[in-house]
Amino acid sequence: MEKLLIKGGNPLMGEVTISGAKNAALPILISSILSSEPCVFKNVPDLRDITFTCQLLEQFGTKVENKGKEIHIDAGPINSTHAPYELVHRMRASILVLGPLLARFGHAEVSLPGGCAIGARPVDLHIEGLKKLGAEITVEAGYVNAKVDGRLKGARIYMSTISVGATENLMMAAVLAEGTTILENAAREPEIVDLAVCLNKMGAKITGAGSNNIVIEGVESLTGCEHTVLPDRIETGTFLVAAAVTGGHVVCKNTDYRLVEPVIEKLRDANALVSWDEDSITIDMRGRELKAVNIKTLPHPGFPTDMQAQFTILNVVANGVGTITETIFENRFMHVPELRRMGANIQLEGNTAICPESSRLTGAQVVSTDLRASASLVIAGLIAEGTTQLDEVFHIDRGYENIEQKFVALGADITRVDD
Ligand SMILES: CC(=O)N[C@H]1[C@@H](OP(=O)(O)OP(=O)(O)OC[C@H]2O[C@@H](n3ccc(=O)[nH]c3=O)[C@H](O)[C@@H]2O)O[C@H](CO)[C@@H](O)[C@@H]1O
Ligand SMILES: C=C(OP(=O)(O)O)C(=O)O
Hints:
This protein is an alpha/beta fold. It has 14 helices and 24 strands. Residues 23, 26, 92-93, 119, 121-126, 161, 163-166, 187, 305-306, 328-329 line the site of uridine-diphosphate-N-acetylglucosamine. Phosphoenolpyruvate (PEP) is lined by residues 23, 92-93, 306, 371-372, 399.
C-alpha cells in the first residue's frame, strides 16, 4: 500500500502549474459517447479517475488513445451499452454514461454507483429527469436499465435539488432529443459551462449554461470536436490554502481567478494577500497572521464543498474562532477525527465544525478517507511538528495530479513509499 511521509515546517515558495479540472474532464470525456466521430481533448489531468473513465469507455468498444495530457476518443465502434459494477463502483461519475448511451443508442444498463464516504449520494434526479425525456427505466439487481423507442423527447425538467451530476447527465441526454428541453434549477458550476461549450463544438444547441435555466434544442446527431479542459479550481484552491497555512508565497499558474472567487474572498478574510492576472494567482502570507474564517458550503457560485476540508485545517491553526458549515453532503467531516489525532481542537455540532482556538499540530499516522479529506491531511502534515504518515493515499490520486512532486517543487518535504 502506498503512503505519503510528510515532514512539516517548510513554508511553500515558488510556482505551481495547475492541471485541467477533474470534474470537467470526466463528463467531457464521457460526452464523446454522443458522437460517432473522433474527439480530441486537451489539458486532461493524469488522474486515477481519468484512467477509470477511459477503461469504462473502452468497455463499450470505444477506441481511446491516451497521449499524456491529450486524449483521443473514437466512440464510432461502440458495441455495448453495459456499464458493469466492477468499473462503476470505483468512481461515482460513471453514472454520467447513462444519459449519453441512452440518447445515442436507445438503451443502457448502468450499475448504480452505491454510497460514498461523504454521503448517500442518490441518483434519483438523474433517473426522474431521463423518465421525463421519455425513457422507460427500471432499477433491478443494482442496475439502472433504461430504454426508449426512437429518440428521447424534449421536456421541461425541474430539479428539486441542485445537482451537478444530474444537470450534466440530463444536458447530455437532451442534446440528441427531439424538441426543446429546459432544465430548471440547474447547477451553475464552471464545469457545467465547460461541458456545454464542448457539446456546442460538437453541434449541440445549448444556451444558458452557467445560469439556473439551461435550454437545449435537440439535434439529430453530433460531430467530433477538439476541446481544451478548463483549469482545476479545487486544485488551485488547495495550493492557495497550503501556501496560506505554511506562511508561504506561491504563484498558481495556468488557472483563472474567476473560477475561485469565493475561495479568494475567504483567503482575504483570513488575512492573506492575494493578487492575480489573466492566467495566474499569487498568494503571499509571509509575516502575516492567519485569521480564522466562517464558511458555509453552497452550490456554485457559493463556497464549494470540495474546499471545506482544506479550510478546516486553515481554521485549526489560525487565530480566532472559525466555523465551517457543510450543507451539500451529510457526512463530509471524515477528516476531523484524523486531524484531532494530530492535535487539532475541532468541535463538531451537527453539520458545523468549530475551531475555538489555534492548535499546534504534531505528526501522526493518519488515514485518507476521501479525496478532499486527504488534501487537508497533507496540508496538516506540512505544518505539523515531525513526520505525518498518510495511509490509503490512492484517494488523493483520484483528483490531484503529481501531488507530491508539485508540493516538493514548492519546498515541501514529502516522499511516497510503498510497503
Ligand atoms: C465528478 C464531480 O463533478 N463531482 C462533483 C459533483 O458531484 P455530484 O454531481 O455527485 O454532486 P451533486 O451536485 O449531484 O450533489 C449535490 C447534492 O444533491 C444530492 N443529490 C444528487 C443527485 C441526485 O439524483 N439526488 C440527490 O439527492 C446529493 O446527495 C448531494 O447532497 O458535485 C459535488 C457538489 O458540488 C462535488 O462535491 C463533486 O466534486
Ligand atoms: C467529491 C468529489 O468527487 P466525486 O464526485 O468524483 O466523488 C471531489 O472531487 O471532491
